[in-house]
Amino acid sequence: MAAILNESGTLVPPPRVQLQSPTAFLPLWGWAALIGFLLIAAVLVPLLALALPQGSSLHLSQYWVGLSGKILCYAMVALAMDLVWATPAFCRWATACSSLWAAMPWACTLTGR
Description:
By secondary structure, the protein is mostly helical. It contains three helices and two strands, in the order ββααα. Strand 1 (4-5) and strand 2 (11-12) form a beta hairpin.
């Protein structure tokens, strides 16, 4: 930046720009909730599908295991896009969630269900 001349003709340095400090992507409780959800989804869903017998009310069919896997994949893609772009007004959690729910019917049509 160039210096500025004032009324008396002396050079005045340009004003310093104050940058905002970066904010955390998620607060600590948000990261804990996200990790907890991922652990439940990644461990409990396959465990319920494999360990429980077919007649159990908690048994998950292969369809639900596959669908939950697709949902987690789309959620990870949406989160990765949010972290890569990192623009506050463009892609936030609401955008990621809405793109996830918009992609789910498309994913279901790929499997023919």
